Automatic annotation (TrEMBL):
Family, per entry: Belongs to the glycosyl hydrolase 20 family.
Keyword Signal: yes
Organism placement in taxonomy: Bacteria, Pseudomonadati, Bacteroidota, Cytophagia, Cytophagales
PROSITE patterns: PROKAR_LIPOPROTEIN
Keyword line: Glycosidase, Hydrolase, Signal
Organism of derivation: Rufibacter roseus
Catalyses which reaction(s): Hydrolysis of terminal non-reducing N-acetyl-D-hexosamine residues in N-acetyl-beta-D-hexosaminides
Protein's name according to its UniProt entry: beta-N-acetylhexosaminidase
Top EC class of this enzyme: hydrolase
EC number from the UniProt entry: 3.2.1.52
Length: 543
């Protein structure tokens, strides 16, 4: 009788414990290898101690904050296992032998120990995100159980980015930090910060102060049309810059979370805001230009820098200042959609081309790109540019960000450039997620969740040509013409950004859209709600 009771009790307790733990089938993006070992779960309680190697001290504090929010209690952080005594431990260990590649992590949980081993900060941060997903999302009265697991995980692509355009609309520093938190949760490693465009310059600079006071503001005479947010056509002055102190703070914030920030200063086109502040950098310095307040390519109005000594001095000075501010190895120099007509119509631009042996406007564009690339190289930086930068001959260290499609990717690979895939279809998250005519205003047609999930960033032709190694990774772009507020950004990026995270992280053969949607609904949507983030709710109806 007793042994029967014991068996019954064992089953009962066992099944309760099984219900309490979440397990490896919850994780997004799906890991390379994740096994439930069936050993005793780890009980995380107020008594649990976070132990961190010197290298991961800041991540220990980051984890402490995350657990404080999620579980409701503050764990002690120490820097050696000895100080933990016989308490249950969460160990953050620098261990290149266990996790030899850049972003790999190994997470093992059983009994009184949960360890995350990594070689470097991004790896340990990824392990932390996985841990969050193994824990309940509610504040706990008692201990929270983590199932006994063994996870070994690393990304499919080395570059996994999200972009945000803060020119068309500017967002508060708190939202930029929130956005970085969203990126970290999804195991992205790069935030591409689109800081300048025709409609506003957003980076405080010391060397050319009119960028802060003139280029940063526009009159809201025509802002576009919002169906769900109040339209503002009232000539208010709109804009601002992120101060250098704010930028430094944001860079630090991102670094703790394993995120590199790559700033973009978009030249020689998309430069209308610069020209409004300094007309002498344009082909028509005699004109009073204004910061753009409509959208589009701007052929009608001058947004192209002129090749003159003042402009080149400006470019050198500004990019030096940017290089000093941002620690990233890469600086994005834009290069997209440069309208050639202004150079064609300008006698001085034509004279410059002739004097420098440039046979057409494409070569002039390349001259600009190379000029900046050379200055940045002196600062130890390399460039990324939109795919138009490869119209002329460039150094192969330049990384090409492809916004069109496979054709441009093949061209870039043949020219031996590393490539970041960000094709409008399906990686532009400013496009519609539904065909509902009442959906919030967007552009570029229909770009639903399953298209993002099922897109393979390695074009078939590159495989055939055996050039797939040139694909460095991919990125979601968030152009904000029609995103006036943070809530609209969240609505446009969720859940597509979650799908993208799996597209860029998970081995191709492990991807499964139906299973992704199961995890999304069961575990990630509650996470959006926990964050208080807006998201597109009708994705099932439209995929
Ligand atoms: C094109 S693609 C742009 C942006 C716009 C976007 C709208 C590219 C590099 N430039 O200036 O905001 O389309 O989707």
């Amino acid at each position: 009788i007793f042994s029967l009771a014991a068996v019954v009790l064992w089953f009962f307790v066992g099944s309760c414990m099984a219900q309490q733990t979440i397990g490896v089938n919850a994780i997004v993006p799906k890991p390379v290898s994740a096994i439930a070992t069936g050993k005793a779960p780890v009980a995380i309680s107020t008594q649990t101690v976070i132990v961190a190697d010197g290298a991961f001290q800041q991540q220990a504090v980051y984890l402490q904050e995350l657990l404080q929010k999620q579980l409701g209690y503050t764990l002690k952080v120490v820097n050696s296992p000895k100080q933990a005594g016989n308490a249950t431990q969460i160990l953050l260990q620098q261990d290149p032998a266990a996790a030899p590649t850049a972003e790999m992590y190994v997470l093992e949980a059983a009994g009184k120990k949960l360890s995350i081993k990594a070689k470097d900060v991004p790896g340990v941060v990824h392990g932390i995100q996985t841990l969050l997903q193994l824990l309940p999302l509610q504040k706990q009265k008692g201990a929270a159980q983590v199932a006994a697991v063994q996870i070994k995980d690393y990304p499919r692509f080395g570059y996994r980015g999200m972009h945000l355009d803060v020119s068309r609309h500017i967002f508060p520093v708190e939202f930029i930090k929130k956005y970085i938190d969203y990126l970290a949760f999804h195991k992205f490693n790069t935030f591409h910060w689109h800081l300048t465009d025709d409609q506003g310059w957003r980076l405080e600079v010391k060397s050319y102060p009119k960028l802060n006071t003139v280029a940063a503001y526009r009159n809201l005479t025509l802002i576009g049309h919002f169906k769900d947010t109040p339209a503002r056509y009232d000539s208010t002055r709109y804009g601002g810059v992120y101060t250098q102190a704010e930028v430094k703070d944001i860079i630090k914030y991102a670094a703790v979370r394993g995120i590199t920030i790559i700033p973009e200063i978009d030249i020689p086109g998309h430069s209308r805001a610069i020209i409004a502040a300094y007309p002498e950098f344009s082909t028509r310095p005699d004109t009073t230009w204004q910061v753009a307040n409509t959208w589009g390519m701007y052929n009608r109005q001058n947004n192209v820098l002129a090749p003159n000594p003042a402009t080149f001095k400006f470019l050198e000075t500004i990019f030096n200042e940017v290089a000093d501010l941002f620690p990233s190895e890469y600086i994005h120099i834009g290069g997209d959609e440069t309208s050639k007509m202004w150079w064609k119509a300008s006698p001085s631009a034509q004279a410059f081309m002739k004097a420098n042996g440039l046979k057409d406007e494409k070569e002039l564009q390349t001259y600009f790109i190379k000029f900046v690339a050379n200055k940045l190289e002196k600062k130890g930086k390399k460039i990324i540019g939109w795919h138009e930068i490869m119209e002329g001959k460039l150094d192969t260290t330049a990384v090409v960000m492809v916004w069109a499609g496979e054709k441009q990717a093949v061209e870039a690979a043949k020219k031996q450039h590393r490539i970041i895939m960000t094709p409008g279809k399906p990686f532009y998250f400013d496009a519609y997620q539904s065909k509902d005519p009442k959906d919030s205003l967007a552009i570029h047609g229909y770009n639903p969740l399953d298209a993002v999930y099922n897109y393979n960033p390695v074009p078939a032709e590159l495989k055939t040509l055996n050039l797939e190694k040139y694909i460095w990774g991919g990125q979601g772009n968030v152009w904000t013409e029609y995103m006036e507020y943070p809530s609209k950004v969240e609505y446009m990026v969720f859940p597509r950004m979650t799908a993208l995270s799996e597209t860029l992280w998970t081995p191709l053969e492990k991807k499964d859209y139906a299973d992704f949607k199961r995890r999304l609904k069961q575990y990630i949507i509650p996470r959006y709600q926990y964050w208080g983030a807006g998201y597109f709710k009708n994705f099932e109806q439209w995929t």
